[in-house]
């Protein structure tokens, strides 16, 4: 009897099934092995790759080495993608790029003016009687800071453009000129510089006499606190900011916290050291202040006012070889004014306008300008400090200035006057006058007539950049003292920004040699020994020269303010 096959399975199928069993086991083992290796490789690449590798303790971890550890693996078989390093960006990049926009006439010249609270400027004018102990400054703040008009009674002036301008009024004149500046902006990202319309000179003038140092410093501290909280300040920490003070620098450089010490400490505040302060007399040993001209009596409203005046100064007959307007300084043993006055009195070709307190022709703009217009040379010794307003009045009259100290002009007004001082002036060393080694008359007579004519023409050509135009109008083509100053600030900030981008640093900069850097030509960075080193030997802190600077500031304030009354 035949055995019946298993249900559903044919005999030939049973034979095939028995023959396939060994192969199935091999497939199973192969699949299991492949799965094991898959898990091992997954664990290695997907897990272990992201675990931090313990650093070798012998190798210090630097920013560069960390970057190297984080570099992605190369993709084998594919071209590696190389990412170029990004150039660093600066918050003033856009401002620099505006200069390249030829269709923008203001490109690279935009000025952002801070909208200061009125306590820093306009409120002072509302209380103008408190601005001076001796002088009612209210009349001098009229006409946008120019003062009352001068009548042309003696025919000395032009018919228009002449004002009884106070020599300390630059604060308000400059701020009002800035309101007419053609390239103002409210966008700080395009600003070439930032103007701070703080009346620093008027502020300290209120408190120089009879007030403690807390009162003298209050507005300055308030100002820097206000500025440092502004976003515009953070662009360069104030190194692109500037302000103006119509006073000498020593009024803002109090050395101690003694109540008897002079002035305030504005220019010694850390924030103020970053800013540029334009003053009528700067310090030769500090880098954060710059000299700008004293205001004269002439404030032209249009180009023709200047051209007509210049032509008139060319045609004048000058009967005096030299002249001097001033008073002796008997209390100052280093002053040479006494010897100068003595030489003027002895000379038949010298003119002297003696000044003293009370009624004097020295207090009359007409008398002063008339004497300067009739002189070939005008003597400009130091005043109570290095500088004098008289130097600018004389050049306005086409008179060649004679200086006796390089700090009276040559190291002060490098933005406005030629660095080659022999083109427009004569220099006679103080010691030669003090020791009576030189006769001023003989020294000036030795200059050939043609050379005198060339020098006088140079002085007359400088007139536009030495006067402040009427803030209520605009000159068409000429650049006045304001324009020259603003452009110089813009150039200074622009060069600083470029140095930052290019990584340039002035590691060898010595602040005590600031006066030397001002005399360098374009592109020069290094200074060395100079013929004027003996004039500017830096005093030790608290030394005699520091005391004299403070005393000079006091005397200047008293003498000049009384002259205005």
From TrEMBL:
Exostosin GT47 domain ranges (all copies): 106-443
Compartments in which it is found: Golgi apparatus membrane
Membrane topology: Single-pass type II membrane protein
InterPro entries, sorted: Exostosin, Exostosin_GT47
Entry annotated with the keyword tRNA-binding: no
Region entry Disordered, spans: 1-20, 63-91, 528-565
Residues spanning the membrane: 26-45
Name the UniProt record assigns to this protein: Xyloglucan galactosyltransferase MUR3 isoform A
GO molecular function: glycosyltransferase activity
GO CC annotation: Golgi membrane
Keyword terms of this UniProt record: Glycosyltransferase, Golgi apparatus, Membrane, Signal-anchor, Transferase, Transmembrane, Transmembrane helix
Pfam families (alphabetical): Exostosin_GT47
Source domain of life: Eukaryota
Species of the source: Glycine soja (Wild soybean)
Family: Belongs to the glycosyltransferase 47 family.
